[in-house]
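Structure tokens please, single chain.
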Amino acid sequence: MMAKNKEPRPPSYAVSVVGLSGTEKDKGNCGVGKSCLCNRFVRSKADEYYPEHTSVLSTIDFGGRVVNNDHFLYWGDVTQSGEDGIDCRIHVIEQTEFIDDQTFLPHRSTNLQPYIKRAAASKLQSAEKLMYICTDQLGLEQDFEQKQMPEGKLSIDGFLLCIDVSQGCNRKFDDQLKFVNNLYIQLSKSKKPIIIAATKCDECVDHYLREVQAFASNKKNLVVVETSARFNVNVETCFTALVQMMDKTRGKPKIIPYLDAYKTQRQLVVTATDKFEKLVQTVRDYHATWKTVSNKLKNHPDYEEYINLEGTKKAKNTFSKHIEQLKQEHIRKRKEEYINALPRALNTLLSNLDEIEHLSWSEALKLMEKRPDFHSCFVVLEKTPWDETDHIDKVNDRRIPFDLLTTLEAEKVYQNHVQHLISEKRRIEMKEKFKKTLEKIQFISPGQPWEEVICFVMEDEAFKYITDADSKEVYGRHQREIVEKAKEEFQEMLFEHSELFYDLDLNATPSSDKMSEIHAVLSEEPRYKALQKLAPDRESLLLKHIGFVYHPTKETCLSGQNCMDIKVEQLLANSLLQLDHGRSNLYHDSANIDKVNLFILGKDGLAQELANEIRTQSTDDEYALDGKIYELDLRPVDAKSPYLLTQLWTSTFKPHGCFCVFNSIESLNFIGDCIAKIRAEASQIRRDKYMANLPFTLILANQRDSVSKNLPILRHQGQQLANKLQCPFVDVPAGTYPRKFNETQIRQALRGVLEAVKHHFDVVSPVPTIKDLSEADLRIVMCAMCGDPFSVDLILSPFLDSHSCSAAQAGQSNSVMLDKIIGEKRRRIQITILSYHSSIGVRKDELVHGYILVYSAKRKASMGMLRAFLSEVQDTIPVQLVAVTDSQADFFENEAIKELMTEGEHIATEITAKFTALYSLSQYHRQTEVFTLFFSDVLEKKNMIESSYMSDSTRETTHTSEDVFSRSPRGGSLDYNYPDSEDDAEGPPPYSPIGDDVRLLPTPSDRSKYRLDLEGNEYPVHSTPLNCHDHERNHKVPPPIKPKPLVPRTNVKKLDPNLLKTIEAGIGKNPRKQPSRVPVAPPEDVDQSDNYAEPIDTIFKHKGFADDIYAVPDDSQNRIIKVRNSMPINAQGDEENGFSDRMSKSHGERRPSKYKYKSKTLFSKAKSYYRRTHSDASDDEAFTTSKAKRKGRHRGSEEDPLLSPVETWKGGIDNPAITSDQELDDKKIKKKTQKVKEDKKKKKVKTFNPPIRRNWESNYFGMPLQDLVTSEKPIPLFVEKCVQFIEDTGLCTEGLYRVSGNKTDQDNIQKQFDQDHSISLESMEVTVNAVAGALKAFFADLPDPLIPYSLHQDLLEASKILDKTERLHELKEIVKKFHPVNYDVFKYVITHLNRVSQQYKTNFMTADNLSICFWPTLMRPDFENREFLSTTKIHQSIIETFIQQCQFFFYNGEIVEAPNPGACQPPPSNTVQMVEPMVPLQLPPPLQPQLIQPQLPADPLGII
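Here you go.
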């Protein structure tokens, strides 16, 4: 049939699939798998395979077109290609038996034959029968593909006999085989090929399969194919094998066992699954949907292959699993982030270990919920758990879900947090402990590297505990602290040495000699040496200090915001001084202004707020101020308005002033820019003079909505801008106010506008000045030191709390005005409060009637600054000294305060000044009566002060024609007028010690034009007239003028030196007006202390006043001659000097001197600087100068002894510039100069000499030890007395030799012993500590240490010997090398210290403690020497060994074991007397306390 066709068609075969069918009774409750086998073969895709096919149908479904009332199904056809490439079409028919779902009996069909008969039929016919797909198709045929059985009939070409080899359901396998056997017999009758398909092999029962195979083996040519429709195994093979049996032309079928075929199929599925999963893993967003992803992947071959093999459902499940994994991974990451953030949250909310150390996690959670910051760290969700809510998608919300804290991970974090706090606390404790260890190591100096220190702390427990980074951090912090402290102490030291700096005038430039002097003095200070390793920083601090000293301003003040000028300005600006009655009257009597027009400039609505506040305080726009009604027209303008300038310039509104209000740095800067624009617009563009001079007032709004710490910054910035713009600044008054603006501010601002209108000025100078204040009767300057430890309110309260106090004139930001009745009249007293550095210019240039000099009794630098300032004040000006401390108890409890208060009182006594004390804890100082006596004294001397001031001003102007000085721009101060050539100029020396300007010249005329150089040659000098002495304040000396040729003068005679000495000794207070005059001595009734100098070697003291009188021996009888008329002086000269009438009732006019010549304390301070810096004695001579006078030559009487390179003070006030043997002295000077130059070239080992601590000359202390002993008395008497006193009275004193005694008492002990060697220390009533300090000072003052330097190295080497016995014997041999005198004294001292150490249980002074206190005194180290620093501990241990082994070293005793002092317990605190007896301070009498505070008891000190 095929051959007849022109075009060959693929062969077509019909296969009938048969097997056990029938009711449930026949086949059980499940079929044998015929339908699944057909389904898998016809539609092999997984999505088209239906594992459930029912044979129980309704009558309707049975009669439908799919079943078509037949007991067979048409499954369709499959086109299949063979191995030879020939296609064939296979039609599949399933023979079954449909059961009625009502009767559960087979449906009646047209073919009433039993199943075995029908199944074997080879001809099938059913008109319009549709292809069967699945059970759901029945009744819904229109929803599925409709394909009819070809021509309604088919001829069966072969049979596929299905046998279920699985464990059947309610079915016996034998029954199935019996049925199959009968069926096979019927099928074989048709002579058609038959193949047995063993179905459900995936659930195969092995013996069932074997029985099937045995069944087949008994039949001829019967093939068994093991299949599994579920896994699509051998399904196609069984049909292909049947086709091959039907078509003999095809090859013999290859039957593959089930297991092999299953493995092949599974491998195919696994490969496809891997490819599909990789494809799915490209999706990273867990929000992706299957629909979106499947549409995107549907054309991908890997996707299609997996869908075909496993189906869409499995693909979707795989995708869902992947999406779930993505989501869980996201949740895991978020949870990890939360857990990692939890420690930070716990640190924020539970940072206090003491609070949570013993709390459980649940208790800690409750505590956290109460914290105010809880919701910033955690979020409480309405739905839980958190990972099932949309919170997981809120990646920007970093808050931790609170329900996460219930997990074990969170609890573990909490436990770790607690442990971390505990370990951190321990770490901090160890760091602090290590820090204290470092603080105890005394030799750590500022700038010392960590590497040099680490070896000393290696065994420290805290160092071992902390890390290297922590130890370096702690050491770095320690270094910063000690460096900062050293710098502060260095700066404080510079202020303490104020006399060293402030002897120059303002704007001066220190010469190289002056700098050398400064370095020479400071180099002796330990605080100077402390910065040895930071020399550049030290030099920078010094230069900064010098720059400030000679160019002082508020901005460059070294105290920063603690500058006295700034603090005074702030206090006065914030006080109620601007509201005083006098100023109110001034405004009230001002110009007839009834209406005031005001612009109010502000940002962000501030201007409108101020306008509203002013209107609130007004009545119908009328404002009452100081008894007058003003109509106010307010125009608030927003500073950000683009029409700002247009609003300001209107023809109908002319403002009297502009209020500029601010409340932040931003608004302040904005206001500043606006004011600059307005002024520029007015002056440069519009040429509007009225608006250009418009008064502006800066007003600071109250910071009610912000933290108070911003207020000082705004106040400071506002004041700075006001100074820059030269306009007033209205600050927020002290106190708390509910609104942004206060009535006080508004009144103050309005008064400022009215005052500006009245006086026709628009700027207020911020620079304090006290000139041109004609309304003041007295002008007083109060000086205080910047940075002193007391409030400005304390020293100003006597004025501010007074009802008679008012503000000074405009611009006097540092001044107040007092109205006080002094004498019989009311006086106006202007008080200007300035820092000392601002007062220097006032002291020189302006008329001041009196000074109130304030100093802190807690600060040496404050006293040093007072001394420096007071030294240059003219002695005609009254002075009030004020010491400030907390209470009167300080005087008795604090030795340093006692010493400074005593010194202040002593200076006041010397210069006849007033002295009082202010106490911060007392109310007495708040009354102005404390200064009433001082004001009266000033008023009494007012005429004399003004006459002296005018006289000085007149002299400065009358000598300009012949003076080389010209007026400086500062007014009143003199600068040098340098010649044209730099090499041709030399100015005169600054001043002479004999008087203010008296000069001892060889001749009255010619000699005044020449001076002597070191060779004795004369060369011309530019001399200043003798009555002009302002140049004394400046050490800036011009370069020397080249000497001109001189005409030989053969008749020049040298004055007799004794005569000149006599003249010097007789110089008094009054200078001479003519240089040709020789000064005479003042009469006996004149105070001799005005021009004071202290003779060192005075031969005879007269009535206890020898220190105040210049005296020289005149003849062999050593009579004191007070020189009055040593040279012939005419009456006119006497009258000019004020001595004509022996000081009549009215005080004779005299030139004012300076207080430094009137005070021994002030003068000796300057002298001590001179001694330390200008002595040319060698190191060996340094301790022997007191034994013999040195004769030297001075360059001339014009030379200042404080600047001279020759030590002039050794001979008392005698001026060694004039001696009888000039040539001999010149040779000595040459020789000495040459020797100094040679010594500088030689490099020799530096010998360390400590600074001399005494400020008096002694013929005992500081002398070589050999000079103080004899063979009969090998121990110095002073040492013997001190040791005896200590061992008799204070051997058990706690802290003996460690606790320092009163320095004044120590000095008194040595002074008294100097005068009387037989004095008894018991009679002096001094403490044991004072005697111990005096004993140590004795050894410290020796020219050489008790342990010679030459043996130091030997001692070091011996200490390195490891064997103890050998080491001690070596040390003993070294001690025997001591000089006999040193050995005896050393033995005596060590024996004494051994006795002290034996009482360590009560005095707590072990040998170790004593060695720490004594080794620097006995060995006198050079702490600037790096090598010495590295061996300090060894030196101390050597002294400790000497003390411990005293019996062995000196008394041939046995070596003893070191005692254990650690077991001793401190005694009760009351066992030792802690308060030493005080030397009563002699202070001025009380300032009328009965009139001021009658309820107070009389002050025993006389301070008040």
